[in-house]
Design goal:
By secondary structure, the chain is α/β, with parallel strands linked by helices. It contains 2 helices and 3 strands.
Amino acid sequence: MHARLIALDANDFVFAGSPGVQADRAADLGVGADHVWAMGAPWDDQVVRQGGRLMGLGDNGVIPTDESFGGNIMESDSGGHTGSFDDSSLSIRNQAAVIAGQYDKVQLE
């Protein structure tokens, strides 16, 4: 059983290096799969994201950066877990574009 998000005032969800969100699919988050965005980094692949799978943080082993999750997977130039928030990085520009509702400016994988 996964947690359901109820009555959130959000237009989009952005996950950067997420180890999982306890949902099977992006559509389960209540904003529409086209409004769910995720990115990771090489270090995240081995530690954070895979650790989340092993610890059961993603329902059925599925996490936001998996294609089967069904959200948008954004390009990231982060070299490490916190690099997704570096000034002037592609990663932060992608997140800013989502927050500003400028979806056409988001670079996807």
